[in-house]
């Protein structure tokens, strides 16, 4: 379940937040960990959408260690759910 943080962000009861921070950026946050994602907006399937580079979820902002494949899948699914709550789709890359 999601709740609005403000007009550009939502918080999940699963422990993560998604916040648009600029025209071409959003942040995915889990506690103190954060990923800043560069994205582009679009109109996929007749509604608002965003796309992001394929390597957008490689590392947390404050870590040089790569994120595991399984965790990247989880983060992507969390992003899709948070965006769907805001009536925005995530385009596949």
How would you portray this structure in words?
By secondary structure, the chain is an alpha+beta fold. The chain has one domain (2-90). The protein contains one helix and eight strands; from the N terminus they run βββββββαβ. The protein has one helix at residues 69-85, and strands at residues 2-6, 9-12, 17-22, 25-30, 33-38, 40-44, 47-51, 89-90. The strands form two sheets. It has a five-stranded antiparallel sheet with strand order 1-2-3-4-5, covered by helices on one side. A three-stranded mixed sheet has the order 6-7-8. Strand 3 and strand 4 form a beta hairpin. The model has no long low-confidence stretch (mean pLDDT 93).
What's the number of domains? 1
Main structural class: alpha+beta
Q: What is the averaged pLDDT score?
A: 93
Helix content: 10-25%
Summarize it:
The protein has 93 residues and is an alpha+beta fold. Helices cover 18% and strands 42% of the residues.
Write the layout of secondary structure elements.
Layout: E1 2-6, E2 9-12, E3 17-22, E4 25-30, E5 33-38, E6 40-44, E7 47-51, H1 69-85, E8 89-90
Parallel strand pairs: 7-8
Antiparallel strand pairs: 1-2, 2-3, 3-4, 4-5, 6-7
Features:
three-stranded mixed β-sheet; globular; 93 residues; alpha+beta
């Amino acid at each position: 379940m999601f709740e609005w943080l403000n007009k550009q962000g939502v918080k999940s009861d699963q422990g993560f937040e998604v916040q648009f921070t600029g025209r071409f950026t959003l942040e995915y946050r889990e506690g103190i960990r954060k990923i800043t994602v560069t994205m582009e907006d679009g109109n996929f399937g007749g509604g608002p959408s965003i796309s992001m580079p394929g390597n957008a979820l490689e590392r947390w902002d404050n870590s040089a260690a790569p994120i595991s494949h399984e965790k990247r899948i989880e983060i992507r699914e969390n992003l899709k759910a948070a965006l769907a709550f805001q009536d925005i789709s995530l385009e596949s890359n």
